[in-house]
Amino acid sequence: MEENKKNKFKTPEGYFDSFHDRLMDKIHEEENIKSTSLIPESDGFTIPEGYFEGLPQSVFKKLKTKDTKVIQFNGSRKIYYRITAVAAVLILFFGLIWNNESKLTIDDLASTEITDYFESTDYALSTYEIAEVLDLQELELNDVLETNLEDENILEYLDENVDDLEDLNLDYENYD
Amino acid sequence: MITEETLVEELKHKESQAKAFEVLVNTYKERLYWHIRRIVLDHDDADDVLQNTFIKVYRNIDGFKGDSKLYSWMYRIATNESLTFLKQKSKKAGISDGELKTAMVEKLESDVYFEGDEIQLKLQKALATLPDKQKLVFNMKYYQDMKYEDISVALETSVGALKSSYHLAVKKIETYLKSN
């Protein structure tokens, strides 16, 4: 047994002599997975002939037409509420301009009418476009929910549904 | 061979933009395609998502600060575009994410661009049972030979967490292949 004079801890015999070999084994373990594993080396996907050669042209073509393409809105109820909020601001703005000609104000519109309008109208906005005009800094979670959500409800939900806390750090929309 | 920094600079300037974009597409098309294809499985869907990814890169290049490698940043966009695409697809069909994944694998059996045999089809069935993160790490490491450091930037996850996800994925897939 080797002994460290300073702290009296001991290591198994030959521990340090074989350390390098074991470390290298560990490093090569990943490469070894492929040669020893049941998992096939190829996953069987193929592509049409000449696909990659023609790809740049297809991307350029799509880039040119993309601006004029109408994106169908397919949002959730939560998004409808957000649109309603945007619409309310727009209607208030135009309401003020029109105010000189008529006496119609935002108060004349019931909020259910605004909601109905957006629920029944095909609104050509993608979620990205909505996100661009919405100021999320001023939007509280409870603004878009029908019933108030308490902190303890959130903690309870996270406790039951999130396996890995790292998942919460994923910010899919931030490309900066 | 043009450097990444030069390419980014050229993409940000109007006069050199078009040529630089062509270089960008040609440099990264294959790597990004295979990354996307392994998430969405179908070739036509992969083509669609790949084109949208390049368009998003082109439009957001001014927002690229250069803190990470350009291609890690593009992988992030490609991953998000692919996952969003699948979410929209399941929503449109009125089925859950799990049901969509099962349907996607079943569709592979008649896919002309899938030449896998029984074991490769079984592999896809095993992958469909994994959480998204584990499936992504597995494909990026095992089939795309990416370094953990690059995967870490692309998926915004620590190298340690990625290593454990990868090993867990390998174990789960092997168990699936043995038992089914």
Automatic annotation (TrEMBL), chain A:
Membrane-crossing segments per the record: 79-98
- Recite the UniProt keywords alphabetically: Membrane, Transmembrane, Transmembrane helix
Q: What is this protein called?
A: Uncharacterized protein
Q: Which organism is it from?
A: Flagellimonas spongiicola
Automatic annotation (TrEMBL), chain B:
Q: Which domain of life is it from?
A: Bacteria
Task: Tell me where in this chain the RNA polymerase sigma factor 70 region 4 type domain is found.
Answer: 121-173
- One Pfam match, given by its short name, reads Sigma70_r4_2
Domain RNA polymerase sigma-70 region residues, every copy: 24-90
Could you tell me the keywords of this UniProt record?
Sigma factor, Transcription, Transcription regulation
Question: Quick check: keyword Nucleotide-binding in the entry?
Answer: no
Q: Which family does it belong to?
A: Belongs to the sigma-70 factor family. ECF subfamily.
Q: Which Gene3D superfamilies match?
A: 1.10.1740.10, Winged helix-like DNA-binding domain superfamily/Winged helix DNA-binding domain
InterPro entries with a match to the protein in the record: RNA_pol_sigma-70-like (IPR039425), RNA_pol_sigma-70_dom (IPR014284), RNA_pol_sigma70_r2 (IPR007627), RNA_pol_sigma70_r4_t2 (IPR013249), RNA_pol_sigma_r2 (IPR013325), RNA_pol_sigma_r3/r4-like (IPR013324), WH-like_DNA-bd_sf (IPR036388)
This chain's protein is named RNA polymerase sigma factor
Matching SUPFAM superfamilies? Sigma2 domain of RNA polymerase sigma factors, Sigma3 and sigma4 domains of RNA polymerase sigma factors
